[in-house]
């Protein structure tokens, strides 16, 4: 079943009518409706192109959060072989909002880490909707240290509304864990590539995305706060999220101009959820290209380049 976003309702009506005609034809073989259904298909495709030609920042947020969008688990299963998950932070627990472990990418040993939101009610609750707790970030630190020790590139897949703000997480040192994970990203002497595959929310995303190369899917978003949270703080009204999304400059296209993102990965027409395999393949191709850019770089060079990238980012942003 296709999930339609609010702004896709006219599209839902057209595609629904085409499906109704085909359903009637399946029940009655004497009915010939293919021409009418094909005309509706063409109309739906034209509308889809118009809708996605120039999405507003708020609509991009909606697409980035689409429930059918490929998640971290989907990318790992499709792009990596011999994936061996590693669990726990060796201190408190295993956070299911963060998955990671050893794997092969194009037959090259790597460490992959990512946020996983889940794809149904049960898995979303188990994964805490992709909102990591301190033990999730400490697990990521452990995996990055392992990668550094054995000279393995690190690939991170970011898709989180933000770190979990619950009482228990704060008691166990949420902000410290995020800071340590960000610090570890800056310290490791191996290539570090990040792809924002959906939402990149606040420090919860930065803790995985302080990388040599940061790529964003075309309709992903990356910001210091959610539009709803920003609107609640600035205007005391969460319904002003559209204005907040405009002001935050959170789209992949804006962040490429600001130098926060290094590459924007095109998505299939209608978003990654409409052609999942195509979107996943595009991410794999771009990860391979970004890793190749760093082939031959020594550990000290990787650390220095990463540090300089982020030091320069603020000045570029101010100039823009």
TrEMBL record:
<dbReference type="Pfam" id="PF03255">
    <property type="entry name" value="ACCA"/>
</dbReference>
<keyword id="KW-0443">Lipid metabolism</keyword>
<comment type="function">
    <text>Component of the acetyl coenzyme A carboxylase (ACC) complex. First, biotin carboxylase catalyzes the carboxylation of biotin on its carrier protein (BCCP) and then the CO(2) group is transferred by the carboxyltransferase to acetyl-CoA to form malonyl-CoA.</text>
</comment>
<keyword id="KW-0436">Ligase</keyword>
<comment type="similarity">
    <text>Belongs to the AccA family.</text>
</comment>
<keyword id="KW-0444">Lipid biosynthesis</keyword>
<feature type="domain" description="CoA carboxyltransferase C-terminal">
    <location>
        <begin position="39"/>
        <end position="293"/>
    </location>
</feature>
<keyword id="KW-0276">Fatty acid metabolism</keyword>
<keyword id="KW-0963">Cytoplasm</keyword>
<dbReference type="InterPro" id="IPR029045">
    <property type="entry name" value="ClpP/crotonase-like_dom_sf"/>
</dbReference>
<dbReference type="GO" id="GO:0003989">
    <property type="term" value="F:acetyl-CoA carboxylase activity"/>
</dbReference>
<keyword id="KW-0808">Transferase</keyword>
<comment type="subunit">
    <text>Acetyl-CoA carboxylase is a heterohexamer composed of biotin carboxyl carrier protein (AccB), biotin carboxylase (AccC) and two subunits each of ACCase subunit alpha (AccA) and ACCase subunit beta (AccD).</text>
</comment>
<keyword id="KW-0275">Fatty acid biosynthesis</keyword>
<keyword id="KW-0067">ATP-binding</keyword>
<keyword id="KW-0547">Nucleotide-binding</keyword>
<dbReference type="InterPro" id="IPR011763">
    <property type="entry name" value="COA_CT_C"/>
</dbReference>
<protein>
    <recommendedName>
        <fullName>Acetyl-coenzyme A carboxylase carboxyl transferase subunit alpha</fullName>
        <ecNumber>2.1.3.15</ecNumber>
    </recommendedName>
</protein>
<comment type="pathway">
    <text>Lipid metabolism; malonyl-CoA biosynthesis; malonyl-CoA from acetyl-CoA: step 1/1.</text>
</comment>
<dbReference type="InterPro" id="IPR001095">
    <property type="entry name" value="Acetyl_CoA_COase_a_su"/>
</dbReference>
């Amino acid at each position: 079943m296709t999930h339609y976003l609010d702004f896709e309702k006219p599209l839902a009506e057209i595609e629904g009518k085409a499906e109704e005609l085909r359903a009637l034809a399946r029940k009655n073989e004497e009915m010939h409706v293919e021409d009418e259904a094909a005309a509706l298909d063409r109309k739906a495709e034209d509308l889809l192109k118009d809708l996605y030609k120039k999405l507003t920042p708020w609509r991009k947020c909606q697409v980035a959060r689409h429930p059918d969008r490929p998640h971290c688990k989907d990318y790992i299963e499709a792009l990596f072989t011999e994936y061996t998950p590693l669990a726990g932070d060796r201190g408190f627990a295993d956070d299911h909002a963060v998955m990671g472990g050893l794997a092969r990418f194009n037959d090259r040993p790597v460490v992959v880490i990512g946020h996983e939101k889940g794809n149904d009610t049960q898995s979303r609750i188990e994964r805490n909707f992709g909102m990591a707790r301190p033990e999730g970030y400490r697990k990521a630190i452990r995996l990055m240290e392992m990668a550094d020790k054995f000279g393995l590139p690190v690939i991170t897949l970011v898709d989180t509304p933000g770190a979990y703000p619950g009482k228990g997480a704060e008691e166990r040192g949420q902000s410290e864990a995020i800071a340590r994970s960000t610090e570890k990203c800056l310290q490791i002497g191996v290539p570090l590539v990040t792809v924002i595959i959906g939402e990149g929310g606040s420090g919860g995303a930065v803790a995985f995305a302080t990388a040599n190369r940061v790529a964003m899917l075309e309709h992903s978003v990356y910001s210091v706060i959610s539009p709803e949270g920003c609107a609640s703080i600035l205007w005391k009204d969460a319904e002003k999220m559209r204005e907040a999304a405009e002001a935050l400059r959170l789209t992949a296209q804006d962040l490429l101009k600001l130098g926060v993102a290094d590459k924007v990965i095109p998505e299939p027409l209608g978003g990654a959820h409409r052609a999942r395999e195509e979107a996943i393949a595009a991410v794999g191709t771009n990860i391979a290209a970004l890793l190749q850019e760093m082939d031959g770089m020594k550990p000290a060079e990787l650390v220095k380049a990463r540090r300089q990238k982020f030091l320069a980012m603020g000045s570029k942003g101010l100039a823009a």
